[in-house]
Amino acid sequence: MSATATPQRVPVPGHPEGCETPLTAQVGWQTPPGAFYTRSHFLPTPVLAAEGWQLSVEGAVERPLALTLDELRALPSHTVIATLECAGNNRTALDPPADGIQFRCGAVSTAEWRGVSLATVLHEAGLRSDAQEVLGEGTDRGHEKSLGREIPFERSLPLAKALDPDTLLAYEMNGQPLPDEHGFPARLIVPGWYGMASVKWLAKLQVLDRPYGGFFQKTKYIYEVPGQESTPVRTMRVKATFAQPADGDTVTAGAPITVRGYAWSGEGAVSRVAVSTDGGASWQDAELTAAPGQWAWCEWSLEWTPGAAGAATLLVRGTDAAGNVQPLDVPWNRLGYGNNGVQQITVNAR
Ligand code: MTE
């Protein structure tokens, strides 16, 4: 089995805008500082100064606001431990291959986020009765070929999610100011939703009186399946994945090992993780460790003694409290989002 080391964030070959962190060295619930995966559509990473930064709150509100970082920090704070997973995680497992950054299984990480409930700021601004959605705009921009113009990264939230007390305007990650690559000085954290909703480098919040139809919501981040109407990518689908052993590891026949990993869902607590050590012929329930919070992954483990020498195929499958079960067949969609097909590794017993 691979020795436990520090988790390392590595760029996807040819795609520095996506860096993933294999879970093989992950221990405990918190992704170590500097190892949390990153996904930024427009490089270089914005490096913003706290001084002079303002978050404007405008649109369908009674009292438009312009908050400095100090003013934001002076509001009552709220802390949430949340797992973020990029919607493109596990895209490499799709057949036929889907467009987009070819993430393996490391575009998922967990941190403690501190900030102000978005609801607190919306309350300060006073939502008008025609308010429908809240659009968050980042300072990062880039040329979008298909549109022939420059666009910012921006995404909207329906009012109910925007007003969830755990939806944050976060300014701290694991007790430190947000690192530049994670959105300094402030970002949205939308627990339970795939990472694209958690807009980094926030510049503006615009309360809309109509549904938003921009590029990162109507052209990207949709489940597009031939012959079906497209649906938006939102909550994280239930997924359990391996940390150790790693795919391809050598294990000793007859010597017990702990098979372990992580499981999460945006639709309810993980209620069951089942593991197969014989390629799916039989399944055993893994032991679950309580998640550190409602929106965070939990750890699972199973003691296993590899039998005869040779290759063994291990599978892991999560179920959540809402009754969602990880599918055995990968749910293909054109843009390769939300792939929560059952995870599989092969180890060699000697
Ligand atoms: N926010 C801005 N402003 N620009 C971006 O490109 N990428 C989104 C989201 N927020 C993005 C953004 C995507 S697709 C993901 S998965 C998460 O940020 C990743 O957050 P992280 O880099 O802190 O892990």
* First-residue to last-residue Cα separation: 12 Å
- State the order of secondary-structure elements, H for helix, E for strand: EEEEEHEEHEEHEEEEHEEEEEEEEEEE
From the spread of the alpha carbons, the general shape counts as: globular
Bound compounds, each kind once, are: ligand MTE
* Unreliable parts: none
How many structurally independent domains? 2
Q: Write out the CATH superfamily name of the largest domain.
A: Oxidoreductase, molybdopterin-binding domain
Mean pLDDT: 96
Question: What can be said about the biggest beta sheet?
Answer: 5 strands, mixed
Beta-strand proportion:
35-45%
Number of strands: 24
Q: Fill in the CATH topology of the largest domain.
A: Sulfite Oxidase, Chain A, domain 2
Query: What would CATH call the class of the largest domain?
Result: Alpha Beta
Instruction: Provide the CATH architecture of the largest domain.
Output: Alpha-Beta Complex
Content-based structural category: mainly beta
Counting H and I runs of at least 4 residues, what is the number of helices?
4
CA radius of gyration is: 21 Å
The portion of residues assigned to helices is under 10%
Strand order of the largest sheet: 5-4-13-8-9
What would a concise description of this structure say?
By secondary structure, this protein is mainly beta. 6% of the residues lie in helices and 39% in strands.
